[in-house]
Amino acid sequence: MMSKRIRVLIVDDSALVRQLLSQGLSQDPSLEVIGAVSDPYQARDAIMKLDPDVLTLDVEMPRMSGLEFLKRLMPQYPLPVVMVSSLTKRGARTTLDALDAGAVDFVAKPKASSPSAVSRLMQELKTKIKIASSANVSHWKGKKIAVSTNVIQRAAPTGVEAIAIGASTGGTDATRVVLERIPRGAPPIVVVQHMPPGFTQMYAKRLNQQCPSYVCEGENGQELETGSVYIAPGGLQTQICRRNGRLVLNIFEGESVQGLRPSVDVLMLSFAEVLGKHAVGTVLTGIGRDGALGLKAMRDKGARCFSQDENTSIVFGMPREAYANGAAERLVPIDEMAEVLLRAKVGGHDS
Question: Can 349 be counted among the known catalytic residues?
Answer without folding.
Answer: no
